[in-house]
Amino acid sequence: MDYPTIADCVGNTPLIKLQRLLSGTSNTILLKLEGNNPAGSVKDRPALSMINRAELAGYISPGDTLIEATSGNTGIALAMAAAIKGYRMILIMPDSATEERKASMTAYGAELILVSAEEGMEGARDLALQMQDNKKGRVLNQFANSDNPLAHFEGTGPEIWQQTHGKVTHFVSSMGTTGTIMGCGRYLKEQNPDIQIVGLQPTEGSSIPGIRRWPEAYLPKIFVPEEVDLVIDMDQREAETMTRRLAREEGIFCGVSSGGAVAGALRLSAQVENATIVAIVCDRGDRYLSSGLFAR
Description:
GO biological process, one term: cysteine biosynthetic process from serine
Number of helices: 8
Structural class: alpha/beta
Largest sheet: 6 strands, mixed
Cofactor: pyridoxal 5'-phosphate
Catalytic activity: O-acetyl-L-serine + hydrogen sulfide = L-cysteine + acetate
Mean pLDDT: 95
Strand order of the largest sheet: 1-2-10-7-8-9
Number of strands: 10
Pathway: Amino-acid biosynthesis; L-cysteine biosynthesis; L-cysteine from L-serine: step 2/2
Keywords: Amino-acid biosynthesis, Cysteine biosynthesis, Pyridoxal phosphate, Transferase
Radius of gyration: 18 Å
């Protein structure tokens, strides 16, 4: 009998119905629980995809050093994937990240380099490319790597289509690297061009881990704005409030970008009828405990 490896357990996550937070409507809101992936987030999918395809292309081979800028989830996922495949992993991230995220990366054996909160993800991305130029390792570059959205085109999108029996009408995802929304959106539009693809970005001044309002110069190269039908600006307070409500009223323990996605789905539900809205719950809440988010 063949038993699965940990890599085989990435994907095929549950799609569950929102219950208590949605009532008196003809709509259904479904949540894709990506925190059920082995390293705890939707980023497990592109992490393995980018490494596997880079190997096939001869760009990297086990024993090499990989470098990546991350705000958290991709770093944890890449650290897991590097441990599975036999790579040295260097992760560069803002020092404002929660202690749980930092500890998760080092638990998998990754080395961390922290940049200041002022330098942020832009500074982390610049440093990663600079280190690659200095021959210190290879950058997979989740922001420009087509194997990032491809993981969702081949995995997440088809799962959603199959799990909803083709009834999905709206797809909602927070936007960071934009790999999830690009890959899922393309697949779902191929099945039914009428499906609405909805992205979330933070309002000016809001800080929501994992999603960004990128300056033009740092906009991910994989992002095609025309493939998103609607962009919702999400306030940090609204996203955090919904994150707490999901835990306390639905038993769904997730991070703030996921709370924002569900808040966006509920906003959308107030404007449509007879819709099946799918939102991505991209990670678990345990990696945000030290932030005090759930103590309020």
